[in-house]
């Protein structure tokens, strides 16, 4: 069991150092490229933890007599690292307000006060005394009145405090709680082995070795997943319109070209809000923005499972139907009727479909839908016109002036 315990302790120590170096590298790269306070706080926290682990390793390998009583500065580093890492996690999702900064400073000040008390209590203690003059009772290292119990209890109080103060202000709450649970279990095993059990069970010592690795692993996953979230947010913001949340014109054109290139049958629906300029002039731009957002929401809901929706420009919105089973004409009419029924505006709609043609381009398809929409707007508004209906109307117009341009 001793050899297994030593192997686990060495493995855990090496694993913890590797994870800390990975975290340090990530934090340094982020701070160098972004210069955000959150990354500096993470960098500082990881540097403190590296100092703590380096000191523990040094004492265990080169000064075991000192390590037996765990010098107070390791406790101080551990507490400062815990406070700082929670500050960094909070800053990854929020701005650090003056109140939060004051709270963190107060917690660090209390840590300093607790360290001072522990140091004053530890000064006369030089470790277990052997010989006839040795005091009666258990060794000082395992006595309940151990001078470092103050620091350990203070850190124990900080863990639930972090749970209540940080969890509700960040994302990835599941990972954060898992990390705190690992840290709590690690600290409880340390408390049991250091203060309350004269001869800790090997399982307790192994847990005390492995749980820090679990905590650091969860912390690394947390930071990496947050980076993925930020990258996704940047990407989404680059391809979506800030007001409506629909895709941008450039993204929609790229996707349209890709679908047509791969032989998909695509329908394009072009919508234009009727009398939009008059709405802005009479009721203000805020009313116009609200109308635009309402129409965009309806458009997005109508094509959610069958295609994409984007803002072409101004009050012009476009839907791309990629599902071959969906009928663009029916979708267009559903959009028009919902806008009339659910908002205070109406839309003129035109649509076109690539059909079986493999040579039609995205620009041509959009132009056809746009021309059909313009026909709707020029012939009464609040109506739907297909490209085929437009061409039929043009033929009727050429056939003779007596033919009506109206479309049933």
Topology, element by element:
Blueprint lengths: L1 H33 L2 H26 L1 H4 L4 H20 L6 H25 L26 H18 L6 H24 L5 H38 L9 H13 L5 E7 L2 H8 L1 H18 L4 E7 L2 E6 L6 H15 L4 E7 L8 H17 L5 E3 H13 L9
Parallel strand pairs: 4-5
Antiparallel strand pairs: 1-3, 1-4, 2-3
Helix pairs in contact: 1-2, 1-8, 2-4, 4-5, 4-6, 5-6, 6-7, 7-8, 10-11, 11-12
Folded structure, characterized:
The protein is 67% helix and 7% strand. It has a five-stranded mixed beta sheet with strand order 2-3-1-4-5, sandwiched between helices. By secondary structure, it is of the alpha+beta class. The chain is elongated and about 105 Å long. It has two domains: 2-122 and 141-239, Rhopdopsin 7-helix transmembrane proteins (Up-down Bundle); 249-399, Reverse transcriptase/Diguanylate cyclase domain (Alpha-Beta Plaits, 2-Layer Sandwich).
């Amino acid at each position: 069991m001793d050899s297994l315990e030593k192997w686990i302790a060495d493995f855990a120590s090496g694993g913890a150092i590797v994870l800390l170096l990975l975290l340090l590298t990530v934090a340094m790269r982020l701070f160098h490229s972004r210069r955000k306070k959150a990354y500096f706080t993470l960098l500082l926290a990881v540097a403190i933890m590296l100092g703590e682990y380096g000191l523990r390793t040094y004492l265990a390998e080169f000064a075991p007599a000192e390590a037996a009583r765990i010098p107070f500065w390791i406790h101080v580093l551990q507490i400062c690292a815990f406070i700082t890492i929670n500050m960094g996690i909070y800053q990854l999702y929020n701005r650090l307000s003056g109140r939060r900064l004051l709270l963190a400073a107060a917690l660090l000040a209390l840590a300093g006060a607790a360290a001072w008390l522990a140091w004053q209590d530890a000064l006369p203690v030089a470790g277990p005394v052997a010989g006839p003059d040795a005091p009666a009772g258990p060794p000082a290292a395992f006595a309940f009145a151990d001078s470092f119990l103050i620091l350990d209890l203070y850190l124990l109080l900080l863990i639930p405090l972090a749970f209540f103060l940080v969890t509700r202000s960040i994302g990835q709450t599941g990972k954060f709680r898992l990390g705190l649970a690992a840290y709590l279990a690690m600290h409880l095993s340390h408390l049991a082995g250091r203060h309350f059990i004269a001869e800790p069970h090997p399982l307790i010592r192994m847990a005390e070795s492995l749980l820090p690795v679990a905590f650091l692993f969860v912390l690394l996953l947390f930071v990496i997943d947050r980076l993925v979230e930020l990258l996704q947010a940047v990407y989404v913001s680059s391809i979506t319109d800030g007001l409506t949340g629909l895709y941008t014109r450039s993204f929609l054109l790229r996707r349209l070209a890709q679908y047509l290139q791969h032989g998909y049958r695509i329908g394009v629906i072009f919508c234009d809000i009727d009398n939009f300029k008059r709405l802005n002039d009479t009721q203000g731009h805020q009313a116009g923005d609200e109308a635009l957002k309402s129409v965009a929401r309806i458009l997005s809901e109508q094509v959610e499972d069958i295609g994409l929706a984007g803002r072409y420009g101004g009050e012009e919105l476009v839907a791309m139907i990629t599902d071959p089973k969906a009928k663009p004409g029916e979708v267009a009419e559903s959009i028009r009727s919902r806008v009339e029924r659910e908002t205070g505006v109406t839309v003129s709609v035109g649509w076109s479909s690539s059909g079986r043609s493999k040579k039609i381009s995205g620009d041509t398809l959009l132009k056809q839908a746009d021309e059909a929409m313009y026909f709707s707007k020029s012939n009464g508004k609040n109506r739907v016109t297909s490209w085929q209906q437009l061409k039929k109307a043009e033929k009727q117009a050429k056939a003779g002036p007596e033919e009506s341009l109206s479309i049933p």
